[in-house]
Structure formats: structure tokens, C-alpha cells
Amino acid sequence: YTFHRFIISFYTCRTFGSGVVQTFNGTVFYVSSTCPFTLTHFTHNRVECDITTWRGETGLLVRVEIIINKIRTVLQNGSILVEGKSVWLPYDHTYQHIFHYGVYTKLRSSVLPLSVTWHSVPGGIDSLWVELEQELNSGMTGLCGAPGVAGMWCEQQLIADSVLPEDTCRIRDPLSTVCRLFMSYTLDCLQTRTPHYMQLCEENIYSYEQSEYIRCAFFKEVAQQCGKNSYVWDIWRAVTKCDEPQCPGDLLYKELGEPFVPSCSSPNPRASHQDLIASCVCPKGKVLNDHEDGYQCVSVSDCPCVFAGRSYAAGDIRSTKCQSCVCHDGKWRCSENWCPSRCLIEGQFVTTFDGKQYAIPGKCEYVASQGLNWTILIQFSEKAPSLKTETYTFSNNMVKFDEKEIAELHQSDHALVFWQSSMYVQVQTSFGMKIQVQMSPEIQLYDYTFQSVFAGLCGNNNADTTDDFTTSSGIIENSAQPFAVSWSVGACSVNIPSPCINADNEIFADEKCSVLRDPTGIFAKCHDLIPVEHYHTVCIQRTCNCGSGLRQCLCVALASYATACASQGVLVGDWRKVTNCTVTCKNNQEFSYDMRACNHTCRSLSGADPRCGLDDVPVEGCGCPEGTHLNQQLTCTPKAQCPCYHQSGTMPPGPVVIDGRQWDGKVCVHCSQSPVNTAQKTCDSLSKPLVAKTSCLSGCYCPDGQYEDHHGDCVFRDNCTCVYSGKVFSAGQSVKTNCKTCVCGQGQWHCRDKPCPGKCQVYGNGHYQTFDSRWYRFDGHCQYTLVEDDCGTGLGSFSVRVESVPCCDEALTCSRAIVIDLQGEVTLTLSDMKVTRRLHTAISAGVEPLYSTHTVGLYIMISVPSRGLTLIWDKHTRVTIEMVSCLRNRVCGLCGNFDSNEMNDLQISGSTAVASPLAFGNSWKTTTPPCSDVTMEVFPCERNSYCSAWAQRRCMILKGDTFKDCHLKVDPEPYYQACVLESCSCEFEGKFLGFCTAVAAYAEACSDQDVCVKWRTPDMCRK
């Protein structure tokens, strides 16, 4: 591997005053003209750059035109126009960034190693310079010449070659004037160059003696070249009568100040490698309040905070149902309120108590959740959830107890079951579980609990999402399919929903589900609390795969997001009216988004209503308006017209107890003669829950005390086999997975934990997987902190920053520039398929290397053992960070906080507040240089929907036979979704780069699970 070692240096060309030009190689000359001149023109890596300047009659630059990769930026009349439109700063485009830089303004290119900096004054620009970060000798033309070229150009030849004549322009012959007063103070620094600069001074000032901007721009440049230690530095303004620039608001002018002013958003900006420059700064001990207008300087303790576009004063408290945050030093400090954990089963889509989201692979009967003495079963057919011991059945808009319908309420020692509205039944249990069951138009289950539950589809509620896929046999699977099947009751046929193949359904789903993401729509007020991406994806899948009744499927999906918002105390408004999902109520009942059953029925008037006083998540549905009560005919009547109920009439017959724990372990051949539960006669059944029903199937079974193993043989319990990821293991055999060593014993897995390293990756147009395995999308054009160990402590030892590099199609990302800052020692930069470094201190020989760099196949790998960090780069868009386990809960950035809980990964920089992916990503952009927030993301498939068919067809390789051996070990769904989004470019380079990167990401995940897939071919992503 060839390592490029050098110190980053800049080649600078300047023009200032009324026409002084200093070329890239240091030659200084003067040209005074109102004609347009090419300042510099070149092509680098197929990207063209052309900078043209115009001077007016005052000598100032009155127009500058900068064209980079066909994007035209014009500086004129104090305004900045990009492609003919005026822009505000900071301005960020895929190809370039424009921002304030001290008292100057700077344009930095993303596709060229170039920046342009200028100083504006009334009437024009008095100084401008162009910086190159590397030599670009090939074909450079213009007044600036080319850096690193031996010898000097003929001034007249440069001028002649660079002028672009116009009928109205003229070139003026310079005549002498007096500059001796100023030049007499520069002898100590200019020495033998003094006569030349005297001539330049006279040429610059001639006929502009009354122009302070022309005169002072020249004097300032000379003073800066002499430096702050020279005699002229301290007296040049007094001698020349050049006043200091006026700064706005509370800011003070400083001749040598920080280019980026400390602010409430960034009280300690990273100065990078830039020098101090003329700048407007706050008084010592103050920072700029950049959250409000007026250039006000405040103490850090008085800084306001911002959330969802609103500003909060220091000390203000912002509360949601489950979190309270106080504004402190410009950052949010948050504490969790006492809120129950929540499990959602909405159709075939599950969200566990800890927040992990997945899809059930088949319509079977499952254990939704299970504790020491209770079980909740859910069956995707005629029946739905049921509580063990006392059995309640929910189906077809009906709830039954022991096959008897509950019209209003049922109460026992173990549970209170009642209709909260016409659409929801509420279950309050004695073991701390609250259940809401949506009865129409589709049955959906919502569990709430404060306690730790033990197992099932809903997970274990331990705030650790990495172990949510713990099977009934005790091992953690990596894919949802084997995990869910392990919690099935009886036989279960896997039937994974196929991608949408109905074009009309797909168009309808894409159009109608977009209301969820509309930044100004009915659901927008909830976006900052509940990230909408997952709900949008599920909405499209559920609606697209809907057999009939598309509108109903759509409304169910939209209601899921509205319900999630309501659980956080946000009622989004009348979304059903906006989306044409209105509900028709029976008789004279009325619809409400917060319907309560408490004291709203005639029966409730006969005694204390047990439904009152319950703190529940608001539910929608039909019910009686205030002042009326529901009678047995489901009509709302005044209190005076309600019938009376005797106490004995309010209770249903005594509950029937079904004890499903005792089983007769008899061998049964004919069920008609001796019915037994034959389902409990296999090794597989030992890890599954006992069920209250008898299942008997005539046939041959193992003798009493023996069980059928996964090979079909009869064995004693101690010899029972186990299954992991579809493979059978004998008793005593072990398997290593997710840093655990698991041993098979009596048909179940017994695991021993080991600290696990973390892995984070980003690829394509902003697809991220955090250390805690959370997937999200964020496509920003700035530089962002991927991971660091500072996290507000000021004691950081490393940071990794990334920035997207666009393709020829500006909307696509073709590479990433990476900066590894080993603070205080060395900075490594990875770009253009190579690594460069900048030393801060000398690295001593004879000691263990600070870092090592290797090329491994298609990748560059950088390992920093002392920081516990390894970075792997595919030389394009994919960056992988591997972190040692001892850094758990000690890092932050776009990779999350590495604490095993994916639900808190999206924490805003400097705060514990969790935000949407958009707000989270914006908060981690680096403070220097300034860069604007992303306000709306449009990913390739959304922009090029006509390319989606090609993308879906190609990406099906991930779900097809090529990777079939990996499907049970690594869920292909998130990789498939990312692949489709990445492959939706109809531009050749972006289409295949995105596709190959996405497939390679899944192939590597499979390799990590010891499944090696040879998927590259001469026609597909060849090396």
C-alpha cells in the first residue's frame, strides 16, 4: 500500500485594491481596467472551473462570476446569486458551500480542491483570493497563472491572454502618486521589495485617492504580509486613516480573530487548520446568540435552546408525556418520566417493548408475551389475543369470555375488560399489563407494562434491543423469521409477504401514504417526537399488498401513526377528515379521537364505574357525547331515560378456569380412544409454551419419557437436539453467535455472554446502521461527526468526520471524504481513493505505531489500537467503524451511543433529547465551516420513480436463491430497502455504484455470520 505523506499547503492567488494581482507562484503586478478578466480557468478530474472578474469606475470589483461544474455563482451589488437566484448564508449545494468567514465570505467547492474568499464593502469587493489545496498545473489560464511553475510570466502577456474585451471597457495607463508615508514604515519587512511595492501602491491609488476602500485594501494586504510582529502592524491604520470595519450588534472587530465566532450552537468551534483572520467577535466570556436575530452576545448560561423550530429561553422546561427537558447552557438536559413500555402488533408488523421493529413471517398462532403465571396468545385467523387462565377471545368486532359475548364490561379477580369506544377494548390485568385491542376495521394489539416481562414476540422489556430476538429455546437469532417461528404454537408455515406487484396499488399507496411525511401536513406536529419513516414504509407495504378495500388498508396504516402520536400525548388533529378516512357511527353516537367509557353508559350509573380513574392512552371511536349515556340498544339517551340495574345483574356468570398446565404424557395411537396432547412429544416442544387446549393427531409417537428429536429419532430429554438458524445441533454441541457461546442441553440453549465489539456503517445516499443496529436514513451535504469520544466532556481523544462527494448527477453520492482526527497527534484524510496525513506533533520512532494502514481487497483499513478504533473504507461511499467493547456508552455521533439500546440512538448533539433522523443528523454537522440544515430529503427512488421497477428487479437478488443460506442469519429486508433506494438512479454511474455497494453490505453481514456468498460475476459488480 502506498502511503501519501505530506503537510497540506495552500496555493493562493489574490487581487485587491484597484487592480493589484498576486499570482499562485507569488508574482505581483498591477492591471487597471473595466474590462472583464479571467482570473483563473482550469479542468480537474473532468470538473471545469472558470472565475471571471469585472472592475467598475471606482476600481472595486463590481461583479465576480464563479462557474464550477456548470453551476454559476455571481457576486454583484452586495448579493450572491446561484443559478440566477439570490441565496442566504450559509448556503449549501451538493457542489459547493458558501458561508461567513470572519469579516469575509467564503465559497468552498465540494468537487474541487478550491475555495474563493472575498471582502465586501459598499460599492463592491475590495479584496478577493483563490486558494488551491494542491497543484493543478495542467492547462491553467488567467491572471493567477499556475502554482509551482518555474520562472515568471510576462505581466503584459498574462493580461493580454486573460482580458475578455467589451465595447464599453477600457484599460488605464497608471501614473505615479505619493505612497511614501506608508511605505516608510515597511522597510523592516519589505526590504529590497520596497521599490516594487511603492510602484504598486502608486498605480493602485492613481485617480482613486478619495476612495478609502481602494487605498485601505492595499495597505491592509501589505500589513498582513509583514505580519503582526512588524512595526507597521500596530500603526498602519493611524498612519493611513483607515478606520476599523463596523461590526453588527454586540460584536467587536479584531484584526486577528477566530474565523468562526463561538456561538450558542457551537461554543467551542473546531478551528481546523485555518489561521486567525480579521473577524467580528464577541467580548471575552460571551458567545453569539445565533438562535435569535440581532447579533447579541450572551453568556453560555443564558443561551436559548431550540426544538422543532421553536426557541426556548434558558431554564425553560419542555415536557412530553414520557420525557421532561430543561434548557441549560444552550443544550437540552432530559429526564425520563414514568411511562409504561409499549408493544404493538399491527397486522403482521411488531414493535417490541424495547422498540425493535420487524414483520411476522406467517399467519400462525404465537405467544405475544409471557410472564411467570400468564400468557398472551395471538392467532392470525379467526381468533386473536387471549389471556391464559381466564380466556378472552377477540374476533370479528366481538369480545367473548368463555364463548359469551361481552357487550360492555367484565370484571374478575384477574382482569377488567371493557369497551373504551366502539373501536377499542381495554384490558386491565392484575399482573401489571394493560392491553388495548383495536377491534375494527382490523384487529391490532397494544400492550403496556411497567414490569419486565420474560419472553415472546414482544421481547423482554429490559431496555436492550440487541437481545429482543431471544427464541423460546434461549438463543438470540439475527433474523425475525426463526425467532418468531420459535414462539409459534403448533405448526407454522412461513409465508413472507412478497413485494408489491400490482402497479395500480403501488401508485395509490405511494401517493396516499405520502401524507405521513408531508412537512406541513396534518401529521407534521408529531414528526419531532415519533420518526415517521417506519410508519411510511409499513403504510406502503400494507396498502400495496391489500387484496381489496385499499382505502380501508390505508386508513388502518395511517391510524397506527396517529395512535403512536397519541401515546406521546400528541393529538394530531382531524386527520381522518383530511385523508378521507372518516368513521360512520351507529344511531346517534359521535366520533372522537379521545373517547372515554367512564360514566358514559346507563349501566355505569348504578354504581362506581371501575373504568374511571384509569390513565390510558387516548383511543378513537364512537361513543356518547357529554351528558348522555349508552343503553343496551347502543343509543345515547339522557340520564333520566336510562334503565336501572341491580348489582347482581352487572356481573356475568362465574368465570370458567381452564388450567392448561397439567398434561398426561401418554402415548396415543387413536385419538378417538384416548385423546392426549401429542404436540408435546417432540424436543422442539420443550422450549415452547404450554397451551390450554388439547391437540391430538392419531399416529405413532415416542414412548413415555422420550421425545422425537430434529432427526426423527426418539431420545431421552437429556439427548434432545437444538436448532439455530435452521441447523440442528446435538446435546452438548456449542455455537458462537453475537459474542455469546451457547451450549445445547435438553432441547434448549444455555448461553454465556462475552463483551461484544460494536460495528457502525454508512453507505450510499445516507443509509446508516448504528452500533446498536438501528437503521435510519439521512442525506446531508455538510461534514458530519460519525463518531467521537468527546461527547461534550472536552476530553476527547479521537473523532471521525464524513462528507458526501457527489457524482456527476449532483443528487447522488459517489464517494465519501473521511477525516480521522487523533487529537493532538495526527489527522488522516481519506479521499480520492488515497490517504493523506497532517502531523500535529512529531511521532517518535521506536515506539508502537499510533496507527496502521492496510489495503485488504477492495478496502482500505486503518487501525488505531490505542483508541480502540478501526475504520474500513471501500474507497467510495461505504464507511464501516468497528469499536472495542470497553467504549460502550462512551461515544456519540451519527453512529449512536453504543449502549445496546437502539431506541435512544438518535440523541441530538450535546443533549439526551431523542429526535427525528433529520433533526438528529443536522445536529451532528461539524461547526466549521458553517453549513445550513437539511430541511427536506428526496431520495433517488422518490425523484426517479420510473426507475424503481429496474431497482426492485435487480435487488431481489438479496431475497433470492443467491443469498438463501444467509436469510435465517441476517434479515435481508433493511438491506433490500436500502438497495432499492440506492439503485433508483437512471444515471449509469450512480445506478450500478449504488446497487453494488448495497449488495456488498449484505454480503459482508452474511460473512460476519460465517456465510460466504459468491455473488459477483463478470456482468455484476465485478472487482
From TrEMBL:
Start and end residues of each VWFD domain: 341-501, 758-932
Keyword Magnesium among UniProt keywords: no
SMART domains, sorted: C8, VWC_out, VWD
Gene Ontology annotations for the cellular component aspect, listed alphabetically: extracellular matrix; extracellular space
Keywords: Disulfide bond, Glycoprotein, Repeat
UniProt xrefs under InterPro entries: Mucin_vWF_Thrombospondin_sf (IPR050780), Ser_inhib-like_sf (IPR036084), VWF/SSPO/ZAN-like_Cys-rich_dom (IPR014853), VWF_dom (IPR001007), VWF_type-D (IPR001846)
Gene3D superfamilies noted in UniProt: Laminin (2.10.25.10)
Protein name: VWFD domain-containing protein
